[in-house]
Amino acid sequence: MSEISSGVGGRESGVPVAHGPGAAAASGAPDSQLPTPDPHFEYLLRLGDDRLVLGHRLSEWCGHGPILEEDIAMANIALDLIGQANLILGLAGRVEGAGRDQDTLAYFRGEREYRNCQLVELPKGDFGFTMVRQFLFDAYDVLVTDALQQQTVNADLAGIAAKAHKEARYHLRHSAAWVIKLGDGTEESHARVQRALDECWRYTGELFMADAVDAAMQEAGIAPDLAMLQPRWQERVEEVVHAATLTLPASGYMQRGGRAGQHTEHLGYLLAEMQSVARAFPGATWG
Amino acid sequence: MTVAAGRPTPDRLYEILDGVKDPEVPVLSVVELGVVRDTRVAEDGAVEVSITPTYSGCPAMHAIEADIVAALEEAGYADVRVRTVFSPAWTTDWIGEEAREKLRAYGIAPPGKRPSGDDELIPLLRRGAPEVVPCPYCGSADTTLKSEFGSTSCKSIRFCTSCLQPFEQFKAI
User: Fold this and answer.
1) If we measure between CA atoms, which residue out of B163, B170, B17, B162 comes closest to residue B80?
2) Does B92 map to a domain?
3) Which of A137, A247, B36, B38 is deepest in the core (most CB within 10 A)?
4) Structural fold of domain A38-279
5) Three-state DSSP class for B152?
């Protein structure tokens, strides 16, 4: 994994270490001494982990939404994303062939083994931040799931993507509508979502930075060409940002590292909360 | 233990499965909803039922699977396998006219037309008039969409301006 040594890593205060909860017990930890993992497995982890982590962030709003309808909406979207993660991580486990199922992959990997982009792990912030981050991800997700349902040679993945695409479309309608409503709203709401957009922007580059895993998967006909998707994403984002009377941040330094297991300090805390029960009571099931 | 009821015909299997209701929309059976995709009798004599989830995270799928197994056991088929298939993806287009009428009578507006491929994201720029969804209670066409998200993944929330009644609509996907 050359990405790990050359990657920029997390924010200064948050360069992660491999000694977080569960890291020692991890069997597949990326490490320069270990052989390069199967790109197919890695790619599915990226798709699954984006959804699991973002779904968890949205679920943090349950019971805390600004209005009842939005509380329900965020819980619904979280359910869709976690459901998709469940299916994709299950598929990843079967591709890996090492006997790990979706629960093992979700609850018994440390942060260095998570492959989500850093955008989705940022704390939920205020409602405006949550909607801006969601919009940036949804606009990407609609394109990725559409490309997968049409192109991928992995039939299981194509079926999961077809369903996920239908869901991503109404997620995007929802988040785009809120970005416009808040951006073109009051002085206060405008300032808040502009700040959120400025904060999120440097985490969007990672969505389209292809590495060796993406190249291998594109070659195998499993993954789409990320470079082809970026202009369409940019166009759509600009359209909504304009309608929201917001200012698109200048393109500049882009953060990266999540795809190679390097995360901000925030992911460890998220996983600690998400995994604590499963790790305290391994094998426990709902009765 | 149940007594083996012989080799079932496809019609018989559908008849049994039509008795299995959706746990969250109990006026529709899993057949009417389009969740049951296929039934067959395998070479080893087991009854195989293929189902497809309505939504990726639909929590009712586990209950539906258990209810299908229970209904077939009750009818004398103890050896049942339920398979989950993802392709083609479930669509509300599979809900037939009769089932739509049952939804309406239950107080849920049936699904409308699916949004077209190139959704216009900016509400004011959306082409065409918004879809008319009659109120399932008073029939008025004067209703508005409050949220695309409701009490379950498959429903959105609308409000009838005529009879002042909030109601749910089956989301078209």
Assistant:
1) B17
2) no
3) A137
4) Ferritin (1.20.1260)
5) coil
| pLDDT tens-digit readout, A108-155 | 999 999 999 999 999 999 999 999 999 999 999 999 999 999 999 999
Longest dimension (CA), chain B: 63
Mean pLDDT of all residues in chain B?
A: 89
Which of A48-57, B59-68, B143-152 has the largest mean confidence? A48-57
- Is the pTM above the cut of 0.95? no
Both B157 and B113 in one domain: the answer is: yes
Give chain A positions within 8 Å (CB) of B173: 166-167, 170
pLDDT above 70 (res A32): no
Edge-to-edge, what's the strand order for the sheet holding B47-51? B36-41, B47-51, B80-84
Q: Which two tokens stand for residue B142?
A: 């004067």
Q: Say whether both B23 and B59 belong to one domain.
A: yes
Let me know whether B113 and B166 are in one domain. Answer: yes
- Residue B109: strand pairing partners: B169
Q: Residue B98 domain-assigned?
A: no
Q: Does A163 touch chain B (CB under 8 A)?
A: yes
Best CA proximity match to A58, nearest among A132, A138, A124: A124
CB A271 within 8 A of CB A104: no
Three-class secondary structure of residue B149 per DSSP? coil
Q: Which domain holds residue B25?
A: 10-84
| Chain B residues closer than 8 Å to A72 by CB | 147, 149-151
| Residues B112 and B163 placed together within one structural domain of the fold | yes
The domain locations on chain A are 38-279
Q: What does the block give as tokens for A131?
A: 């909607």
Tokens of residue B60, six digits:
């009712």
